[in-house]
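the two lines:
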Amino acid sequence: MLKGFATLVFKELKELIRDPKIFLGMIIVPLVLFPVLGLVMSFSMQTAQETAARTTVLVLNHDSGESSIAFIAYLNRSLRIVEVDVSTVDEAVPLLSQNNATEIIEIPEDFSQNVTAKLSVQVKFFSVFSGTGIFESVGSSVVDDIVQQFNREVSPDIVVSKKSVIIKGQIAEGVDAQALSSFLLSQAIAMPITMMILLTYSMQIAATSVAMEKEEKTMETLLTLPIDRFAILMGKLSGSVIVAGVGALMYLVGFNYYMSSFTSTISTNASLDLTSLGLVPSILGYLLLGVSLFVTLLSALALAVIVSAFAEDVRGAQSIVGNISPIIFIPALLLMYLDVNALPLAVKLVIYAIPFSHPIIASKAIIIGDYWTAAFGIIYVSAFTIAIMYFASRLFATEKILTARLKFRGLRRRGKTPNEQ
Amino acid sequence: MDFAWARHNLFRVYVMSYGAGVKLSLAIEMTDVVKIFGNIRALDGLSFSVKPREIFGLIGPNGAGKTTALRIVSTLLLPTSGSVKVFSVDVVREAAEVRKIITYLPEEAGAYRNLSGFEYLEFMAKFNSKNRDEVREMVKEATEICGLGERLKDKAKTYSKGMKRRLLVARALMNKPKLAILDEPTSGLDILHAYHVREIIKRYVKEHDVTVLLSSHNMLEVEHLCDKVTLLNKGKIVTEGNPQELKEKFGSANLEEVFAKVVGFA
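prediction for all of em together
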């Protein structure tokens, strides 16, 4: 055994565990963060599945034979079936929202005839696609399962499903909702990851730059110059916004390349053209997303500036900002897989209250043309940002920007020997 | 020589007019200032005044309240009570006006690590000048003061402590402020660097009508530099006066002894 090794290890452990930053960041946060995240996820998935199980299906039956009636009865055991009396699927589409339904099944007129003759029959399935999360296709997969069970009981491959999706009230023939969902998953993941990296990175930049000014005492010099203190704050924020913006751009370019390196192989199979399906955001959508991103970034930076003003040095500032990261990560991870509307009310409110969730919510909303959700997010985050900026400017206007550290010094000094004074 | 003579005469006129009761504006007038941080009384009824073109030293041990006093004069901290005026301008009510006529050099301050010395000086000069020519003039002035030569082109993070201090002292003097507030201008410097910095300060006061308020815990250096000193301990003045007078008054060889005697160590 190396001489003194055990003593060193023991000292190291004591030193590290007693550091409140390490204790909090390495032990308490993971112990709380991940179980909470897991609970929320499993609860949300359960909710999503329960919702899917209660899927309402509109059935358009062109056949009058017994087999189709038996098939509908079979479906009715697990799903809520509403038979509609219209002649085409196009006419059935407007009835979806009236019945709160997400699927249309069209049974052809030769259904009973073929089933009786043990011949395959093609049944058309239309799923509503709203682009909100990967569990959205749960509804259509539940219907799939039931059809397969039916096949097992009656005759293998007797019912062949032909799938299509309904996007924004338009039928896109031959597009599988599940394939579309998994294709859009790359986008659904890209946005939250971008937000996580962009926000934590830029907050670190802002916090480091404020703490560096404090550590090197250049802040004190700046505060005695004949310039508006609000200008100092704005200068700091703008500098960080520009650097973070360039960083985000570089990141997006890199990430896009990374994603396209394997989505290109998927897309050849699925042959999905998002533009023709109307799943590419409009210019207004992009504009709203851009504004949403910008105000969120600003709020994060202002928050970083405030908290780092209370830190003594760069390391302290970085660890304080690091403690904020769970409120960025939790909504990002949740929204990566789930639709915000599928979440339980309490969780939903928390997610809406966190400003960093809004660009992610907006990115999903604009795809389906829901501009109000994006606009509401922008208004909320702007109000939050203004409040934070006001607080930051108050902090810069007074001596508090310096006294947080002074206080610590004073206390430390007091803690030392009395005769030192 | 002519200049020195003129200055001498001016000073005489000033002293005479002051003696005759014509009140000229004091550079600093601090009256009964108290500063409390939580439970700590950092300054406890501090009063002193500094005349224009004086090098005034606040001296005392660590924790005496020197930095707090300097920070109040430089508008960084607000006094809990009492008043401070810089050339008759109140540091609390008219802080923005005060900032136009002062420069402040914090203790152990650094420059922006990734800016070169030149860039730093230029950045700082822009806040105190009206046009590009003035900026150029100030940077030229600072280049001469700091004597760093070609090294000014290097990033500040490559500078030694002494070089950094020379750069910052030059920054604090380059715009010829009415009042330069220098917190421990030579602390941590070796003899040569400290000597250089002291010479800069002396020369500048002589040539450009700058008033200097500085702090130091090095009482020996203050003896050679300051026209007047105030000895601080635990936020209070223990004695003040011209270094020579103080030594004579307390029968001490140097200010260190004076201080020890006043606080009862010797």
